[in-house]
Design goal:
Layout (H helix, E strand, L loop, with lengths): L8 H23 L6 H16 L7 H4 L5 H15 L5 H15 L1 H19 L3 H5 L3 H11 L1 H6 L6 H20 L2 H4 L6 H13 L4 H4 L1 H8 L3 H25 L5 H12 L13 H24 L1 H19 L12 H21 L9 H19 L9 H4 L5 H11 L7 E3 L8 H5 L5 E3 L12 E4 L4 H5 L3 E6 L2 E5 L9
Parallel strand pairs: 1-2, 1-3
Antiparallel strand pairs: 3-5, 4-5
Helix pairs in contact: 1-5, 1-6, 1-8, 1-20, 2-4, 6-8, 6-10, 6-18, 6-19, 8-19, 8-20, 10-12, 10-14, 12-15, 14-18, 17-18, 17-19, 18-19
Length: 494
């Protein structure tokens, strides 16, 4: 029997093309004026900068202990590496992190290429060669690499992203495990990697817990008990590491988990940051898929239900149980997309197999070309059409068009005479001390602050007569922000 992971050269070219297109789209997004979420700075980058340099703003989550220090430690380590290579500018470091996460997310597409054929082979019992000819793997890889919502969210420093691709890898390895005979699947290391992946994803984002445990449930349902035992063992090191990290940083074992559950699920504190109706996520998905997509994709996924059930169940779960929470943001349900797109690609392959069995030898070549044209058309459409507008997400609106202001603040940080800076952008979106790169006063613009000699720089989206009369002059311009400077002492306002 052929190696189940081997595909034809033609399929590999399609996968490579899809990954290249996905990389271009994601890097373009990362280097553009991408809207930033406040949490990216004040829950991850700013705490990391504070620990590395001693300068920064501590968000309330890192005072009350609702967050563990894993993500700040990870980004702080990268800050140390970048500093060692002479890259000290906060703006340059920020762009590095955006490109880093944008490209890291492609790992989900790489494993999607393996997952869809594994689901297809085990659901239909077809040889690897027949499964490869359906293009299920390339289709899954291209969809995950170029899907608009996944591309738009790729360059963001948020826990949803690493948790997503770790779980996609875990689900893929589970599907490959279920495809093998029981004796081969029950080796001592078969489930260990799955357990480790699930454990780390939980450390990153505990709210993905119900979905993260589905690979273990699949092993139980399909009677892979030895693999399940090793997967449970694999869960222990990351969970123990989280408890130890909380013990060392907060003083109690699993302190961040207890506080997170208490704040979000017991007290309902997340509602303080905005509430939306129960049906909001379903409305968002309908708006992005349309009526045809809402019918076709689930039906395709159900074609291979015998081996895709835990993927589809995961997609339904992540939307359903998060809909019960008053505070909703689209990033919370990003995991829905790969969990649906991958089994739908496998279902597409199963449909092509059924068509091939019912047509003559002359026509059997047609599905191959139809699939290739469809995939290339999808790539071309991704190039020429705009990405889905995600600005309806209320939290992203607060930081829309803020990147030029952040670049202006980084400019101020490079000036040796900078004493303090004012900005007319919402304080949660200005990038904090991390973007400035030095510990100087950074405050919201108010006319009363103009009389203070602390502030000799301002970064404004809109210039005012008041700031002009306070002695400020333009020293740099960005497309949607202006940097102004004045000499001190401050002239009196008239």
């Amino acid at each position: 029997m052929s190696d189940p992971t081997r595909t034809s050269t033609y399929s590999r070219i399609l996968v490579l093309l899809g990954l290249v297109v996905g990389a271009v789209l994601r890097v373009r997004q990362a280097l553009g004026d991408v809207s930033q979420h406040p949490d990216e700075f004040f829950q991850y980058l700013e705490p990391a900068h504070w620990h590395w340099t001693g300068e920064g703003i501590r968000a309330w989550e890192y005072i009350d202990g609702l967050r563990n220090w894993f993500m700040p430690a990870y980004h702080g380590a990268w800050m140390a590496v970048l500093d060692a290579f002479g890259i000290h500018d906060g703006g340059a470091q920020h762009r590095f992190f955006l490109v880093h996460w944008a490209l890291a997310g492609l790992s989900a597409a790489v494993y999607a290429r393996r997952a869809a054929p594994a689901i297809l082979r085990s659901a239909t019992n077809v040889p690897a060669e027949s499964a490869a000819q359906t293009f299920a793997g390339p289709l899954a890889a291209i969809l995950v690499a170029t899907w608009p919502a996944l591309v738009w969210w790729a360059p963001h420093v948020l826990t949803e992203l690493p948790s997503l691709f770790l779980l996609v890898i875990a689900f893929t390895k589970t599907s490959e495990l279920l495809e093998r005979p029981r004796a081969a699947a029950d080796g001592p290391r078969a489930g260990l990697a799955i357990g480790l992946l699930v454990g780390v994803s939980l450390v990153l984002r505990i709210s993905n817990g119900p979905v993260a445990l589905l690979p273990l449930l699949a092993m139980f349902v399909h009677r892979r008990f030895r693999a399940l035992a090793t997967a449970c063992l694999g869960l222990l090191p990351p969970i123990f590491a989280l408890g130890l990290l909380d013990r060392l940083t907060w003083g109690d074992w699993f302190h961040s988990i207890v506080k997170y559950v208490e704040f979000n699920f017991v007290k309902g504190g997340a509602a303080n940051f905005g509430t939306l109706p129960v049906a909001h996520y379903f409305e968002v998905l309908y708006g992005e898929l349309g009526l045809v997509g809402c019918i076709v994709l689930p039906l395709l996924a159900l074609v291979v239900w015998r081996r895709s059930w835990f993927w589809v169940l995961g997609a339904l779960l992540v939307v359903s149980y998060l809909s019960t929470q008053p505070h909703k943001e689209e990033r919370f349900i990003l995991l829905f997309w790969p969990l649906l797109l991958i089994p739908a690609s496998a279902g597409f392959g199963a449909v092509l197999l059924a068509v091939r069995r019912r047509v003559s030898m002359q026509v059997r070549i047609v599905p191959r070309y139809v699939a290739a044209v469809a995939l290339l058309g999808l790539i071309g459409a991704t190039f020429v059409t705009d990405q889905v507008d995600m600005q309806s997400d209320h939290m992203e609106m607060t930081c829309h068009d803020s990147f030029d202001v952040m670049d202006g603040l980084s400019y101020v940080g490079r000036q040796p005479d900078a004493l303090g800076v004012l900005s007319d952008i919402n304080w949660v979106c200005n990038g904090g001390t991390f973007r400035i790169g030095k510990n100087i006063p950074l405050d919201d613009y108010h006319a009363v602050r103009l009389s203070s000699p602390l502030y000799n720089y301002a970064v404004m989206r809109v210039e005012t007569e008041t700031i002009d009369r306070a002695g400020f002059e333009v020293v740099a311009r960005f497309p949607r922000a202006t940097v102004l400077r004045r000499d001190v002492p401050v002239p009196p306002l008239r």
